[in-house]
Amino acid sequence: MKLSVIIIDDSPLQLLISSKLIRQNKHLNLIGAYTNPMLGLMAVNGLDVDILLLDVEMPEIDGFALKSQITKPVEVIMNSTKPSFELRAYSVGAIDFINKPLKAERLHSSIAKVMKEEKFMGNQEKAFSAVAS
């Protein structure tokens, strides 16, 4: 089973890089990529999303305020060019924080952290047992 991912980042270039990296990960299914944070928020709250890759600095609303408006359980990985946001990202409940520019190895380690979460472990075991059968 693949984990569903949405990306919210106001930078079209960062959105393109993030989308490419997510598509390269066999455990992930990119279901949405948004430069408009409010449209992204509506998608997160309206769809079945496992992971949100969320930019911190955006013009309309910052990632911290946006995260507080998420109404469904979703694992949030926050990212920014400013490492000083890392502690705050964890304090608002992000599972991880990545400094930009995103790199494949770092994103994959964040995804591995999400997959170790108890709620996803059962899905992994089912996927691995189906492959083994």
Taken together, the total number of domains comes to 1
> What structural class do helix, strand and pairing data support?
alpha/beta
In which order are the strands of the major sheet placed? 2-1-3-4-5
What is the H-and-E element order? EHEHEHEHEHH
Question: So what's the overall shape?
Answer: globular
Stretches where pLDDT falls below 50 for ≥5 residues? 124-133
Strand content of the residues, in percent? 15-25%
Helical run tally: 6
Indicate the radius of gyration in whole angstroms: 14 Å
The description of the largest β-sheet is: 5 strands, parallel
Count of DSSP strands: 5
Corresponding CATH superfamily: Response regulator
Mean pLDDT: 90
CATH architecture: 3-Layer(aba) Sandwich
- CATH topology title: Rossmann fold
| CA-CA gap between termini | 15 Å
CATH C-level category: Alpha Beta
Give a summary of the structure in a few sentences:
This protein is an alpha/beta fold and 133 residues long. It has 6 helices and 5 strands. The longest helix is centred in the last third of the chain and has 15 residues, at 118-132.
Structure explained in plain terms:
The protein has 133 residues and is an alpha/beta fold. It has a single domain (3-132), classed as Response regulator (Rossmann fold, 3-Layer(aba) Sandwich), CATH 3.40.50. It is built from six helices and five strands; from the N terminus they run βαβαβαβαβαα. The protein has a five-stranded parallel sheet with strand order 2-1-3-4-5, sandwiched between helices. Strand 3, helix 3 (63-68) and strand 4 form a beta-alpha-beta unit. The longest helix has 15 residues, at 118-132. The radius of gyration is 14 Å and the shape is globular. Residues 124-133 have low confidence and may be disordered.
